[in-house]
Design goal:
It is a single chain. The protein is of the alpha+beta class and 158 residues long. Helix content is 27%, strand content 22%. It has helices at 3-11, 49-65, 110-126, and strands at residues 19-21, 27-33, 36-42, 74-82, 88-95. It starts with a helix and ends in a 32-residue tail after the last helix. The mean pLDDT is 91.
């Protein structure tokens, strides 16, 4: 782990020994602070602070709507940090939920998939009524906006 990551970990009071997790755009690390396991999230360069604010607000909204829903608790406030290239990034910490990433769970049983579906349904219900200006934007994973993939179909093997 590079020196800049150690500096970020120190700023959040994390103990040494972070484990990098997969992520689509951002850097994610399993770590620990004085009270237990956490996830350190370091957003991609150029990420709008309002986007992080939306994520935090969505977690808090869902937790308020369904207090028994297993959701990470956001600890403290997001902070601007500087990476090894001098670029500004936003970092924030949330309590880690028990378990391991789904990609590391093999085999992925039918019961596990049912539990995942039930959890996704509960989360969807808990987010009912949540609104934020950044929700009104193009999103690759919104199925009704899936036309963007047409230009890339040639990249897939037959």
């Amino acid at each position: 782990m590079g020196g800049w990551l150690e500096n970020v970990a120190e700023r959040f009071g994390l103990t040494p020994g972070m484990e990098q997790l997969d992520g689509e755009y951002d850097l994610n690390f399993r770590a620990a602070d004085g009270t237990g396991p956490v996830i350190l999230k370091i957003m991609r360069q150029g990420c709008d602070a309002a986007y992080v604010g939306m994520q935090v607000a969505a977690i808090r909204h869902a937790a308020g709507a369904d207090p028994a829903l297993p959701l990470p608790e956001v600890t403290g406030a997001p902070r601007e940090v500087t990476d090894d290239k001098g670029a500004a990034r936003i970092a924030w910490v949330q309590r880690a939920l028990p378990g391991r990433p789904l990609g590391g769970a093999a085999p992925q049983s039918l019961d596990l998939m049912r539990d995942l579906g039930r959890g996704a349904g509960r989360l969807s219900a808990a987010l009912r009524g949540f609104d934020h200006p950044l929700l009104d934007r193009a999103q690759k994973w919104r199925l009704v906006e899936g036309g963007w993939i047409a230009a890339h179909l040639g990249l897939l093997p037959e």
